[in-house]
From TrEMBL, chains A, B:
It comes from the Bacteria. GO terms for molecular function: oxidoreductase activity, acting on the CH-CH group of donors, NAD or NADP as acceptor. It comes from Allorhizobium taibaishanense. Residues 1-22 are annotated as: Disordered. Keywords: Oxidoreductase. This is NADP-dependent oxidoreductase.
Amino acid sequence: MTQFQNHQIRLASRPTGAPTPDNFRIETAAVGEPESGEVLLQILYLSLDPYMRGRMSDAKSYAKPVEIGAVMEGGTVGRVIQSKHDKFKEGDIVLSHSGWQSHAIAKGDTLRKIDPSIAPVSTALGVLGMPGFTAYAGLLTIGKPKAGETVVVAAASGAVGSAVGQIARIKGARAVGIAGGADKCAFVKDELGFDAVVDHRAPDFAEALAKACPDGIDVYFENVGGEVFKAVFPLLNSFARIPVCGLIAQYNQKLEEAPGPDRLPMAMRDILTKSLTVRGFIQHEFVDQFPQFQKEAPGWIKDGKLRYREDVVDGLENAPEAFIGLLRGKNFGKLLVRVSE
Amino acid sequence: MTQFQNHQIRLASRPTGAPTPDNFRIETAAVGEPESGEVLLQILYLSLDPYMRGRMSDAKSYAKPVEIGAVMEGGTVGRVIQSKHDKFKEGDIVLSHSGWQSHAIAKGDTLRKIDPSIAPVSTALGVLGMPGFTAYAGLLTIGKPKAGETVVVAAASGAVGSAVGQIARIKGARAVGIAGGADKCAFVKDELGFDAVVDHRAPDFAEALAKACPDGIDVYFENVGGEVFKAVFPLLNSFARIPVCGLIAQYNQKLEEAPGPDRLPMAMRDILTKSLTVRGFIQHEFVDQFPQFQKEAPGWIKDGKLRYREDVVDGLENAPEAFIGLLRGKNFGKLLVRVSE
């Protein structure tokens, strides 16, 4: 029996405001033996996603926080290196939720086999995985874009935003992306084929967004919050839909101390007078649509209608820094850590 | 030909903050002759509703404001006293949108005949009219209460709120009302049969509401805003639905100057982490459900499951004062003006 060294990144302390490297701790532990029904995995890719900021806090949310001292949670793609489950054999590539570590023992029943012939296996964490499905389910079920309508999405070069805009276009809507900086904006417009893109760092951002949406906004897929939301709100048309998927711009803030004026009464007034729909969601809720997504998305990728970009960081030890950068918008495309070859 | 004196209340000026008697002007004008296809109406009842505060302002909304100098808008029940429309004859009772005046000429095609044998004709402006239908459509289409869930509604003794709670109970949900003062609270609990009621004027209002909702809140039918909303928000369960029907507590406020902290980021966080649905609406949108409402509601009234209370003020000249009081919660039940016998 081979003994593997398991490299792990654990939560050392809860951040106040933006996470710092001190909030994480690298540890090395022995890897145990899989029991009956379990497999031993070597992790290939770890997904880094904004929701993880929520897990680092102990505020009440839809999911339990990571305990202090526990391995950070996260979606992973791994290779089976030892199997005691009859559905898996050595060499199989599987999707698991093994967290920030190099090896893991997992119950076979919690795993999904990945077919490497469809697309690179890393896409199971991106465009063909949770972020892509989040875009698909939130946009189509809550946003319900109609042909000719205007769909706006921020973080448009990111894992979720890039899929939102492209799926909106597949459905005949006009996609307007918001991204930070010239490179990302060029990518969104030229590579992803959005109808328009606006740089949220530009001093005239709100005016530029209004210009890019001459017929107003029918769907705003909310994944950032903050200043972008402020610019979007006045442009919303009557009966506009706002799937609320994330609020990355405020994850590091102390919301109870947000300076006035209190914008909630104005927002409620607009919700009333424009008959708006604001709907928070997480993709679990729409899990019955996942088979349909799995049927449709690979064809869109093949046809070049659903493009994606990955931002791959090498080495598990670099995960904390990459994650801290993600919350500042430093990544360019779906952020992944290549844990091993 | 008889010549009638038409007494009218016109908008004299736009209010800043709460309306005052000075914002209205009483005038007397001659009544014209109906042309072909029109009828001459003597108004019996004028409905006074919170939405009228919006029409007095020129802020952008779903409906055009009343012009300065124009007759105030409003729903009315009238008697046909001269008809040049073959579907109406003298003595018919009709629903019209004739506004704050004693007589009106109306196109026959815009009128709905009222059958006085079903219920008192005034109910066409209340429990069987726009307010009752607003409750029905907003609660059932957006709120979607399930048996055993908790539905909370404020202004629970009012035209909309009273129907919301009772229809929630008809659907098997638990109805918790919020009302102002002991008399209204007793009425909501004892006459309307709500499961619980909380007085929003009580110093321990937020705690009392929490106690009245031991399983949290699944549907909050929003028709007031302000302090009530603050107390409700922390009690909302995951997947709660909030039909936004009105915000009477903030209609007189300068929202742009609402003092901080800014509660919008916290509200958005809760919308996200609890997968809430917040949906503004006006009843027009659901007009295709009106026939179904007309079929169901009279039976509920007959069976004592849908009770109502009217607050009738005598004399058109008292409409401004009554309306000003409505915005302060002074009315007790559906507010109507008896314009003539």
